[in-house]
Design a protein that fits this description.
Blueprint: H1 2-39, H2 46-66, H3 77-105, H4 110-132, E1 145-147, H5 149-156, E2 164-165, H6 166-188, H7 190-200, H8 202-207, H9 212-237, H10 242-247, H11 249-259, H12 264-282, H13 286-292, H14 311-325
Antiparallel strand pairs: 1-2
Helix pairs in contact: 1-6, 1-9, 1-11, 1-12, 1-13, 2-3, 2-4, 2-9, 3-4, 3-9, 6-7, 6-9, 11-12, 11-14, 12-14
Length: 336
């Protein structure tokens, strides 16, 4: 029973949170790696793009709730998400036309595009704060739990309890569907093959009759969609606050670099690597170990390597280690 109790504690506080957070990072990293792999620059505005899509989704959610529209037991935000995705697509396409296209036509270096994305990041961040403010926003409704801690204890009779939240299940299912669909799209459809060809060799792709502007539009549409999905799922799981999405930029890029920049599968794996690293290092394993050790040998300390206040440092450390040891990432993407 002690082993089962230890596993339940581990699952409740480490496994499920890390899987959920990893799925959210994976979606964010997918959008970032598509831009880097095809448009050839790191988009620093990606975090604030996630925030913008989430903010519009929240506003649409409030409108639907005021009209009495609901899809209970699922959160209304899922019904409002298409509005957030559509608005984000329009904003990123307008930004590309007004900012990035100017530099792309002149074939400037990727560093110039990165600096331009920094400017876009500040503008986008200001737009989000103007639209929805700077406070925490809770917008999850519907059934909060698939099963509660009390129900789990009643079913199992264990001392420790486990609660499975609806947001966790929605995140994992949505991420699985999005990743599978994207892999199919990139490998099986003509448009996806055109994007891969353009990424591998732009000049050869142009000679083959591929329209570069069409590829650019599709990349931005996919990136905006993935960013909104990641942002809304993160907000449903935790809460929405604009500054939080800016802070997510580091773990998202760490995930993309770990897997290999420009490699979609690598972005997914990198998201889970970064998430599990953060959770493992900042969780106190005292209770888990106490169940596994004989009586009298229980640890006095928390068995926590770092406080949760230093969670962001874990992402940074993972990023630096990968850049030093394997710059092209686990799956050998483009040079980081």
């Amino acid at each position: 029973m002690d082993i089962l109790n230890a596993f339940v504690v581990f699952a409740n506080f480490v496994l499920l949170p890390a899987l959920t957070y990893g799925a959210q990072l994976a979606l964010g990293a997918l959008g970032a790696t598509l831009i880097h792999g095809i448009l050839r620059f790191s988009n620093f505005a990606h975090g604030d793009t996630m925030a913008f899509g989430t903010a519009i989704t929240i506003l649409a959610t409030w409108v639907l709730q005021a009209m009495g529209v609901s899809i209970a037991p699922l959160p209304t935000a899922l019904l409002a998400m298409p509005a957030g995705i559509a608005a984000t697509i329009l904003v990123v396409l307008a930004t590309d036309r007004m900012v990035y296209r100017h530099y792309r036509v002149r074939k400037v270096s990727s560093v110039t595009l990165v600096m331009a994305s920094l400017g876009v990041m500040f503008v986008m961040g200001g737009l989000v704060r103007t639209v929805i403010g700077v406070d925490d926003r809770q917008f999850a409704d519907g059934a909060r739990f698939v099963f509660t801690a009390a129900q789990f204890r009643e079913w199992t009779g264990l001392t420790e309890t486990l609660a499975l939240r609806s947001a966790q299940v929605i995140t994992l299912v949505t991420t699985a569907i999005a990743v599978i669909w994207l892999q199919w799209f990139l490998k099986k459809t003509r448009t996806g093959k055109s994007m891969r060809a353009f990424s591998d060799n732009e000049n050869l792709a142009l000679l083959s009759g591929i329209n570069p502007e069409r590829v650019v539009v599709i990349v931005w549409i996919l990136s905006a969609t993935l960013a909104t999905l990641a942002g809304v799922l993160y907000g449903l799981d935790k809460s929405f606050r604009p500054i939080t999405y800016f802070q997510l930029l580091l773990p998202i890029f760490a995930a993309a670099v770990v897997g290999g920049l420009g490699n979609p599968l690598g972005a997914v794996v990198g998201g889970f690597v970064v998430a599990f690293s953060e959770v493992f290092v900042t969780y106190g394993f005292k209770k888990v170990v106490a169940y596994l050790l004989p009586a009298g040998l229980q640890p006095d300390g928390l068995l926590q390597l770092l406080s949760t206040d230093y969670k962001i440092a874990v992402s940074f450390t993972v990023l630096v280690l990968v850049l030093l040891l394997k710059p092209t990432g686990i799956f050998g993407g483009k040079s980081s």
